[in-house]
Amino acid sequence: MPRRDPDAVRAPKFSARDRLAFLLALVPWLMDHERVTVDEAAAHFDVDADLVRESVELIAVSGVPGDTSSYQHGDLFDIAWDAFEDRGEIVLTNLVAIDDAPRFSAREAAALIAGLQYLSSLPETADSAAIATLMGKLSRGASGPVAPVGVAGEATDGRLATIRDAVSRGVQLELDYLNSRGEHERRRVDPLRIDSNDTDWYLRGWCHLRQAVRTFRLDRMSDVVVTDRPIEHRVDEVALPDKLFEGATTELVVTLDVASAAVPLLDDYIPDGAPRSTHGDLVRLELPISHLDVLKRLVAGMPGVATVVGPPEARAAVEAWAQAALERYSVD
């Protein structure tokens, strides 16, 4: 082993707990990088090179005893000693117990990678090196080959970046909005906050046309323009409700029978304290809606688990909508 200069300046001594934490971080890092120098490892962890050398030497005499309860050669970590002593390179040549650790299945790793790809598509996490590194580790560390996964970008990605820019700068937006009645309106909005519900994105802001806080779905927006006008209502000056969806002042209250397992899908739409009762596997609840078109889309999205009980005009509207849909399948 090369002799070290006893007069060399040393880094502050690590406690036993610090050394253990460093070793636990060093081993998987060395496995990921296959061949690195002592100086590269020291720079990555921001520690003294002597600490890296001492830790690598300790790793090389660490392991798990085999069936004989004594340490044999294959029961210890090992390194390429010539490369380590002559060129200061660290190469692990034998790993112990690492391969016995629990691993994600290929399907679990693919699901996590898909989620990370979705995160990497968002403006605030785009081009994140940490996400790319984590996806690589998941691919290599799964118990089997991971199927290639690709998450397509949403059509709203460009609008989302534009709106985030307006929120961060505190300036107004102008946009065309398709409301629940199918009508296009030009709106001027003070953007306050962006929220998501599953895969749908929403802007919450002060609408100058309605003179109130409103929630806008991004996929119903078009011709979004960021202006130079500062917002007139700030997030700390208006009351943003905890729930994403709030009922309008002119509401139609609809009574629904919903399968109990599907009730959580409606929680964001049900006002606090709204009456509900249980009848076997069904929950009867009251839901305020702004327009019957909203009810049609809601029932269409919950086929077989939601039934309109009343009022009569709501039942008639849903029935007529369903009948019109069936007629499209008829053949002349």
Automatic annotation (TrEMBL):
Domain PafC HTH as annotated: residue spans:
18-139
| All copies of domain WYL, residue ranges | 160-225
* Pfam family name, one: WYL
Reading the lineage from the top rank, the first entry is Bacteria
Tell me which residues make up the WCX domain.
253-326
Q: Which organism is it from?
A: Schumannella soli
The name on file for this protein is: WYL domain-containing protein
InterPro entries documented for this protein: CBASS_pafABC_assoc_protein, PafC-like, PafC_HTH, WCX_dom, WYL_dom
